[in-house]
Amino acid sequence: MIERELLHLTGPVLVGPEDVRDELWVVDGRITFDRPRAPGATATRLPGWTLPGLVDAHCHVGLDAHGPVDDPTAEKQALTDRDAGTLLLRDAGSPSDTRWMDEREDLPRIVRAGRHIARTRRYIRNYAHEIEPGDLAAYVRREARRGDGWVKLVGDWIDRSEGDLSACWPRWAIDEAIETAHREGARVTAHCFAEDSLRDLVEAGIDCVEHATGLTEETIPLFAERGVAIVPTLVNIATFPRLADGGESKYPRWSAHMRRLHERRYETVRAAYDAGIPIYTGTDAGGSLPHGLLAEEVGELVTAGIPPREALSAAVWRAREWLRRPGLEEGAPADLVVYDTDPRADVRVLAAPRHVVLRGRVLR
Fold first, then answer.
1. What is the pTM of this model?
2. Which residues face 333 on adjacent strands?
3. pLDDT of 220-246, one tens digit each?
4. How many C-beta neighbours within 10 Å does residue 336 have?
């Protein structure tokens, strides 16, 4: 059994963005706000601003630009996130089986969405189940049972015959797939860059859309009305110009489309926020991007015009509530991060945690 220290967090403890406590204790790896009765025990004092562990709601553990990776590489990905203070990950699609990580006391907690489900030849090679619409519901059922309450669809991708982004699934297939996932107790999210897949997905009952760069004046109110969340992954959207340059000669329409989506990215996110669409932080790490970028993503939300406290909450308190995982609550596992100054005042503080505590162990 791993021995855990008795810890005393003595700086401001941000239980919520406006709920600030003077202190908390960690006993046997769990949080308590009551001074422990342990005669003779000496607590390790950790001063600073304490938050629940950060949340990357869109990353990929066990995946790189070419497909699945070996366990040591997946471990390095998870450790990179951990050392950056990101202690809860929603793995938004991976072909690797990473459940062995659940037994590791020193690795972040992962909420899995199973493997991507894509249309045949309409996604990155070696990433997804590539199937036709008639098989979609069956594969959704399978991945719902493999995941941790989520399923990930590829909603649009480049159609080589059109030379541009287009929707991958007919409406009837989406209806069947989302209904199937919900019967299995799973929520559904979808990769969507462009505009034309969004209405069908939302009207079919989808729970979340990743990237969502194709939101428009017509679809933003629909998302808001239905309460459909988005994870903008702005650090990933920053790569669109490079991708567009690489595809210019073969797919000029697609390249021009990608540049337009990139140019209006901040305007799109701010319009979504103003409309009341739930927004959460995600980096899309594990494909072409490295892990450990969550602080940069929070900064990008602020650049887009989201107030700093709201951007922080999208990475901490609201994100944990959305993923149905506890924060700084009595009896909850002690997964927390300590900073030198108040991250509500300046989110750039998130890039430099003073301490990282996971399951009650001080790892940094």
1. 0.96
2. 30
3. 999 999 999 999 999 999 999 999 999
4. 29
Res 1: pLDDT: 39
d(CA 46, CA 354): 9
Ranges of residues in the chain whose predicted pLDDT is under 50: 1-2
Q: How many residues would you count in the chain?
A: 364
Distance, in Å, from the CA atom of 67 to the CA atom of 321, rounded to the nearest integer, reads 31
**Closest to 91 (Cα-Cα) out of 71, 117, 116, 66:** 116
- Separation CA 71–CA 210 (nearest Å): 26
Q: Token pair for residue 92?
A: 């938004």
What pLDDT shows up at residue 77? 98
Residue with tokens 């107030």: 307
CA distance 178 to 360: 38
Please tell me what DSSP assigns to residue 207.
Answer: -
Nearest to 338 by CA among 358, 359, 353, 327: 353
Under DSSP, is residue 322 helix (H, G, I), strand (E, B) or coil?
helix
Amino acid occupying residue 74? A
